[in-house]
Specification:
two-stranded antiparallel sheet
């Protein structure tokens, strides 16, 4: 990078802030301050001036990377994605990303030694990731691999080739009380007990909603978090009812398109629809087409797809027990609301595939669509263009787990050491993983508790039959309330069936447009060029874990 014309596209947000503070202070001082090096944390504060210079921070001693060995290590991590702009680092993102936070933690702990620590660039450290979750999406079993600093001893330098004859017969004298065998044979390095406590070190630096869960002391040198993964599991969480239902007395009799009381879901119909995804299918109508991924394969194998109840996860809301709020025709005996998740296991997934699948399953659950809609959309020859239906919300989606290895490469299995198995205090100590996560959970649990109590108070205060306002309507407006996974319903007017919605272009039409934009005659010509490059590089066409 030219220092006279620096490029900030890959800089972390913290580094950019330090840079701005330095430039502002330099302007006040007449431009006489020397340029701080990348990664420096001693840049002048925006509040400092020549008369009252800020106190200098103590700079820790730098680690010399040449004195340390490195090793490839696989990490299992979890994160709550609500406040992040996705997993992958994006230079122009409005929100921080998981990769940016990981980069800062690895740099600060001196586990990696990039030439430009302020720039997020994983290329030089053999980095790989299992999946690329989108903005708002969480993960409880994401896996990455990084070449990091190690406590392993460096290999000894080889003896000079030309040795004097007298040196051949010299014996090493043993220290008093030490056997000669012990001098020659040092204790072998233990990949677990002698190694850096990676997870503990990183968890001290990472934000509380990003946690390292485990690492693999026996990570193979050719391991790839992407290519060695054989299965990815997703869970999409939702409640029953999905949103606040209205009393029967306020329902509009003219609203005939809503076949089930608004807010409630037909769980059995959803389960029937979910089961139809199992097997090998073409999912182009359940994904968003990325024009740049011309060689993508739309076929994906789903091992399991189901609707599962999360036991004892709901918080009782007594007003839902009233006949006024309950739907007719659904057997609801237990306390409500309940919590469920849409469970999907497969080898790999297309862009937005899970959210597209969830959106259709929710439309079935509201009885706006029949479960057979899944069969019709999976038949891409009959339906080559995806209808423009709304994606399910991003926040309830979780990359639940990733399984290794692929059957054709069993030697790349991972033997995880979870936090707490090394030292119980790392999980249950005062600064352990359980303590930090309990604190994070309890804050949000109390938010839920207080909001639930307030909701119960509000539901019991007003007698809506009074209608003290003479202009008050008898019924709510006749409109469909559509549930798409978010915190509230969307007013959809009169419901338009999925197969009657406007269509986008077919996959080949999208690729042809992108090919012409890049200067090729059509997608076939562009695909031929890219395919040759990928074959030469030995790359895999499959785009895994792109949710």
């Amino acid at each position: 990078m030219d220092e006279r014309d620096p490029t900030y596209n890959k800089w972390t947000k913290d580094a950019l802030i330090r840079r701005i503070q330095y430039l502002e202070a330099n302007l006040r001082d007449g431009g006489h301050k020397s340029e701080p090096a990348q990664g420096s944390t001693t840049a002048t504060s925006a509040d400092g001036d020549a008369a009252n210079p800020p106190k200098k921070k103590k700079v820790p001693g730098k680690i010399d990377p040449s004195k340390y060995a490195t090793r490839l290590v696989a990490f299992k991590l979890a994160y709550l994605g609500k406040r992040y702009g996705g997993f992958e680092y994006a230079a122009h993102a409005n929100q921080p990303t998981i990769e940016e936070e990981l980069w800062k933690a690895f740099v600060k702990t001196c586990l990696i030694f990039p030439e430009k620590p302020d720039e997020v660039n994983w290329d030089s450290i053999e980095y790989s990731k299992c999946g690329r979750t989108d903005r708002g999406v969480s993960a409880f079993g994401q896996v990455i691999a990084v070449r990091v600093r190690s406590n392993r001893p460096l290999p000894k330098e080889e003896q000079p080739a030309e040795a004097s004859q007298g040196d051949e017969n010299i014996e090493v004298a043993a220290e008093p009380g030490v056997e000669a065998d012990e001098v020659e044979e040092k204790r072998e390095f233990d990949d677990f007990t002698d190694e850096i406590q990676y997870c503990r070190l990183l968890n001290r630096i990472l934000p509380p909603d990003i946690r390292m869960l485990a690492w693999c002391p026996t990570t193979p040198e050719d391991f790839s978090a992407r290519h060695d993964c054989c299965e990815r599991q997703y869970r999409y969480f939702f409640t029953q009812p999905a949103f606040a239902p209205i009393p029967q007395s306020l329902e509009n009799p003219a609203n005939t398109s809503q076949k089930l009381k608004a807010g409630w879901l037909d769980i059995e119909a959803m389960r029937k629809a979910a089961k139809k995804f199992e097997g090998l299918h073409d999912f182009r109508n359940f994904s968003k087409i990325d024009p740049s991924k011309i060689n993508v394969k739309f076929q994906r194998r789903i091992f399991e797809s189901d609707i599962v109840e999360v036991k004892d996860a709901g918080a009782a809301l007594p007003f839902l027990d009233s006949e006024e709020y309950r739907p007719a025709g659904l057997d609801l005996q237990e306390k409500l609301p309940k919590v469920y998740y849409f469970h999907v296991r497969g080898t790999a997934f297309l862009w937005h595939q899970i959210r597209c699948m969830a959106a259709i399953v929710f439309s079935v659950g509201q009885r706006l669509e029949d479960p057979s809609i899944v069969d019709k959309l999976l038949d891409f020859e009959a339906e080559p263009r995806r209808p423009n239906y709304q994606l399910a919300d991003d926040v309830p989606l979780v990359l639940w787990d990733c399984k290794f290895p692929r059957p054709e490469k069993p030697e790349n299995a991972l033997k995880w050491v979870y936090v707490g198995e090394d030292n119980p205090l790392n999980q249950h100590g005062s600064h352990g993983l359980m303590s930090s996560m309990w604190e994070y959970w309890r804050e949000r649990k109390l938010d839920e508790l207080l909001a639930g109590q307030l909701l119960n108070v509000i539901s019991s205060q007003a007698d809506i039959s009074l209608r003290k306002d003479s202009k008050a309507p008898l019924h709510v407006p006749a409109t469909v309330k559509a549930f798409e996974g978010g915190n509230k319903e969307r007013l959809a007017g009169r419901y338009q069936p999925v197969l009657q919605k406007p269509r986008g272009g077919s996959a080949e039409e999208v690729f042809d447009r992108e090919a012409r934009r890049k200067g090729y005659a059509n997608a076939a010509e562009w695909r031929e060029v890219l395919l040759k490059k990928k074959q030469e590089a030995g790359a895999d066409d499959l785009e895994e874990g792109t949710e």
